[in-house]
UniProtKB/TrEMBL annotation, chain A:
Biological process (GO), any one: transmembrane transport
PROSITE patterns documented for this protein: ABC_TM1 (PS50928)
Localization, UniProt: Cell membrane
Protein name: ABC-type nitrate/sulfonate/bicarbonate transport system permease component
Family from the record: Belongs to the binding-protein-dependent transport system permease family.
Signal peptide positions on this chain: none
ABC transmembrane type-1 domain boundaries: 57-237
Record keywords: Cell membrane, Membrane, Transmembrane, Transmembrane helix, Transport
Transmembrane segments: 64-84, 91-114, 120-138, 183-207, 219-237
SUPFAM superfamilies (alphabetical): MetI-like
Any one of the GO CC terms: plasma membrane
PANTHER family: ALIPHATIC SULFONATES TRANSPORT PERMEASE PROTEIN SSUC-RELATED (PTHR30151:SF38), ALKANE SULFONATE ABC TRANSPORTER-RELATED, MEMBRANE SUBUNIT (PTHR30151)
From TrEMBL, chain B:
Top-level taxon in the UniProt lineage: Bacteria
Domain ABC transporter as annotated: residue spans: 4-236
Lineage: Bacteria, Bacillati, Actinomycetota, Actinomycetes, Streptosporangiales
Gene3D superfamilies: P-loop containing nucleotide triphosphate hydrolases (3.40.50.300)
Keyword Nucleotide-binding in record: yes
GO-annotated molecular function: ATP binding; ATP hydrolysis activity
InterPro entries: AAA+_ATPase, ABC_transporter-like_ATP-bd, ABC_transporter-like_CS, ABC_transporter_ATP-bind, P-loop_NTPase
Keyword field: ATP-binding, Nucleotide-binding, Transport
Name under which the protein is recorded: NitT/TauT family transport system ATP-binding protein
Record's keyword annotation contains rRNA-binding: no
Organism: Streptosporangium saharense
Any Pfam family hit: ABC_tran
Amino acid sequence: MTAPARDWAVRIAALALLLLVWQQVAQRLPAAILPTPVRVGAAARDLLTGGELALAWGQTVTQVAVAMALASVAGVGLGLLLGWYRPLDQLLSPLLGALFLTPRIALVPLIALWFGLQDLAKIVLILAFGFFEVFFTVRDGVRGMERSYLELARAYGVPTWRTLRTVVLPAARPYVLTGLRLGLLHALVGVVLAGFFLETSGIGGLIYNLGAALRTAELVAALLSVMVVGLAVNVGLRRLEARLTPWQVTR
Amino acid sequence: MTAIEVDDVGKSYTGKGGKRTDALSGIRLSVPSGGFVSLLGPSGCGKTTLLKCLDGLIPVTEGEIRVGGVPITGPGRDRAFVFQDFRLLPWRTVLGNVVFPLEGVVSSRAEREATARRYIEMVGLSDFERHHPHELSGGMQQRVGIARALAVDPDILLMDEPFGALDAQTRELMQIELLRIWELTGKTVVFVTHSVDEALFLSQRVAVLSARPGRIAAEFEVPFAHPRQEHTVRGDSRFTDLRHDIWRLLKGDTHAFSE
Ligand SMILES: Nc1ncnc2c1ncn2[C@@H]1O[C@H](COP(=O)(O)OP(=O)(O)O)[C@@H](O)[C@H]1O
Ligand SMILES: [Mg+2]
């Protein structure tokens, strides 16, 4: 057997074992506490065919897209600027650091007061979760960027603005991609919380409602969908990073 | 004609907490136009420092460096630097790396690429112009470094242990290649190395630096005409004698030599 084939065999065996144990335990517990995998499977099919899951993810994806677009522009822009220009970093980083250390969830009441409970408020909350990963990764990347590239540019008389464009920006590309991936994964936390604490819509709202209604099998199915999306985002963007920056050793 | 004059140059670094390191002291050196001069010395004696001062990448703290009779104030297009670590931009192809110093200088893209291709061909990498550095061997990467330096058509090539990171065999091939390019282009070359053999095989003159603070301990003329043949030079008794003299000088100075 080839190595990848063996990996897959191990993974499938582990999954089968997990399902088996789950089935055995769940059979001895009330369905409202822990439904069996078979029931969860049926619930997942119902959520999919009934359109509930698609509707919830549809609302969420739009919000995440808008929030992450903003997070990318702000995070990459500020990251490049503060990573490159020390005085600005010294001015703004304490503030951004303090915000980063404040549990983002504590911002919810303020966000609700300022932006209401609907799409706009949710976008702001998701942004609050996604932004910092992008910003810090890009800033630290530019800051720690190989000074030797800058020496090369200086040796060949490349002016500052051109150095920024042709050296600093491309050298920061791997960090931008990593930052976007980490930001997006954190944004998923914001997504779920937005459905809990703001208007009960989107995938977070669906999870909240299913839990409140004690529809445990559907609840677990919805949770699994979040897990699958998280995994897909992680794997997909890692692949993209590897393709766009083939010289970079994957972190 | 004299290409470079180093006039009583000293360099000290001020580190964190004001700690001073004297890297160079009282350096006098003159490099003739079209000449090939090596700077030879043990690790840490200030060879890189001197070469960066020649390029204008770092300022001297004493004395003056003149290129073509004019005191230098910074890097200029009359000089090009070849780094020990190749220093290629990993996201650019071979062609992209060689074109790099021409951007913003030569406005026509076609012209830039034509120039770059000429030097890529000179270093024998025409079949690899679309490759990225991580797809090339060390020797090939340094060929790109040399092509990039030649592309700006400098009068002077400043080479900082350019073959130091290569294996012995590749290194010898690159030495022969460099001599061919030097004879072809007529550039002035200042070549830093810590290998006695390399300095003797390549250069017309070898300046030996002593350990910290770096001073010029002695200069040796290497009496072989170019174009040189490797086996005839290395087998010659004058080569062995020079080698012996330089070794003795260095041994008295330091044990930091590896060859
Ligand atoms: N940027 C720097 N700051 C402080 N000290 C330095 C710096 N660069 C080099 N030095 C010191 O100057 C001396 C000469 O270094 P260098 O020119 O790199 O020597 P070489 O190239 O001959 O090995 C060494 O003692 C080194 O530690
Ligand atoms: Mg050195």
